[in-house]
Amino acid sequence: MAFGHLKRLSSLAALTAAALFMGHIAYAQSNDGPGSLGVDVGVVASIGNGIYIGEGVGVTYYPSLSYETELVTLSLLEGASVQLIQSGPLTFSVDLAPREHALSQSSTPELAGIERQETSADLGITASYDFSDALDLTLSTYSDVTGSSNGHEIDLSLNRVVYVGPLPLFLSASASWQDANLAAYTYGVRASEARAGRPAYAPGGIVTPSVSVSTGLPLSDNLLIFTEASAEFLSSAVTQSPIVDQSTSLGLLIGVNYSF
């Protein structure tokens, strides 16, 4: 199973990628033996630089719980995905995925008066083409179904597995397009939120490239530790926002996962 077919870029880009990596490795491990349940539990520590004005480096901890079969994935972090069609190397799935809005969690004085819903939900369709067991190309489309942003996103990612000795490295290069509604919800300032030194701003549609590398180390047949480093490169339309003061979003994740 190629690892990129569920990957989704959003404000939780790094976390989602790491959760995906953890889930597929754990799934492969757990299905090596008879009687596996396909259930994984764990915890993820996310370390990253805040891109909004007044923010610094922060650490957040997330619990992880997932259930995976060949056709269905249910995950506390990733939501739900159902494989609809598989024809040779081409796979289609439908996804219902949570989207966490980092702006809603900021408590810096510079962002006072800006309100966003903490979590929304996206309905999406993913198509993945496996060139080999170690290389796939994935196209995903997502639309907000909660009315938070009424936005849309399209993500294209190329995913590759390479080995350094026995150690697998999961490499990904992606580009994510967000429409004007989603970009404004994530990086903009509404007219009602404008104040002295913080004018109203809407970035329009944006494209965000990103790269990531993940790896994991099994400690036993059931226990896995993993890590991921990622970087998102924000466009000038984003960095010109009066509430954004970084041009790159960097993330480091460390997690542990146990498979039943």
| Number of beta strands | 12
Strand order of the largest sheet: 1-2-3-4-5-6-7-8-9-10-11-12
* Helix residue percentage: 10-25%
Mean pLDDT across the residues is 86
**Terminal residue distance:** 19 Å
Supply the number of structural domains: 1
- Bulk shape: globular
Number of helices: 3
Tell me the strand percentage band: over 45%
Could you explain the architecture of this structure?
The chain is mainly beta. The chain has one domain (about 15-25, about 70-215, about 230-250). It is about 10% helix and about 50% strand. The chain has three helices and twelve strands. The chain has helices spanning about 15-30, 180-185, 235-240; strands spanning about 40-50, 55-70, 70-75, 80-85, 90-100, 120-130, 135-145, 150-165, 165-180, 205-220, 225-235, 250-260. The protein has a twelve-stranded antiparallel beta barrel with strand order 1-2-3-4-5-6-7-8-9-10-11-12. A hairpin with a 7-residue loop joins strand 1 and strand 2. It is globular, with a radius of gyration of 18 Å. Residues about 1-20 and about 25-35 have low confidence and may be disordered.
Please supply descriptive tags for the structure shown above.
260 residues, 3 helices, 12 strands, mainly beta
Task: Give me the secondary-structure topology.
Elements: H1 13-30, E1 39-49, E2 57-68, E3 72-75, E4 79-87, E5 90-100, E6 119-132, E7 135-144, E8 152-164, E9 167-178, H2 180-187, E10 206-218, E11 223-233, H3 236-239, E12 248-259
Antiparallel strand pairs: 1-2, 1-12, 2-3, 3-4, 4-5, 5-6, 6-7, 7-8, 8-9, 9-10, 10-11, 11-12
